[in-house]
Amino acid sequence: MSTDGSGTSTRDITVVHLMRHGEVENPDGLLYGRLSGYHLSDLGRRMADRVAEHLASRDITYAVSSPLERAQETATPIAKAHGLDLATDARLIEAENVFEGKAFGVGDGALRRPENWKHLTNPFKPSWGEPYLEQVVRMKGALDAARDAARGHEAVCVSHQLPIWIVRSFVERRRLWHDPRKRQCTLASLTSFTYQGDAIVSVGYSEPALDLVPEHLRAGAKPAKGKSKAFGA
């Protein structure tokens, strides 16, 4: 049995990469949420291929995705590169949102519409969508399941920006309510959880396809007016 130099068996170390999908074809700039029929753009497919190349030498033994098309299409090149069947876990799905199917972004006037005010009363829950704690429970369950499936190796789980950021915030003991513009979760990014046994001991973040990501869609970028896709899921 090999060790990592500190006496810890390498069988006890598992890495689960939580990946955000690539860019989506969304010409109307809608908040597409859980709607079906939203596929990767040509650029999004290039992002997926780039991350698959980045992970090609890694010890990936399990690949799983949200059931939504954009996530499945992002995960497919990774699974193929490692000769794996792609699994699906519904717990990795995008967060529920009452504004799904609508334009709701910087500069579109959504916050000034009285019909929307009733959904904006509690940013701490939040009142407009799936509660943050519910997202934590399902995402942590999906991460732990991937850990068990790839124990002693590495797994890739493809999901969506908000659930990824929320579970990372929980693990890193940050408050769950936040400014969406400040999420560190760029398109096709990897948020990597290292487990020792059953416990998460570290969290890393990388952006293998950053050069392909338009500047206004990068982590921490100031959204441009009319670019509601900056909050794409």
Notes on the protein architecture:
With 233 residues, the protein is of the alpha/beta class. The chain is built from five helices and six strands. The chain has a six-stranded mixed β-sheet. β5 and β6 form a beta hairpin. α1 packs parallel to α2 and α4 crosses α5. The C terminus is likely disordered.
Features:
233 residues, alpha/beta, 5 helices, globular
**Sheet with the most strands?**
6 strands, mixed
**Strand order across the largest sheet:** 3-2-4-1-5-6
The oligomeric state is single chain
| Cα-based radius of gyration, to the nearest Å | 18 Å
Order of helices and strands: EHEHEHHEHEE
Q: Indicate the low-confidence ranges by residue numbers.
A: 226-231
Measured as a percent range, the helix fraction is 25-40%
Structural class: alpha/beta
Mean pLDDT: 87
Number of strands: 6
Supply the number of helical segments.
Answer: 5
Q: What separation lies between the terminal Cα atoms?
A: 42 Å
Strand content: 15-25%
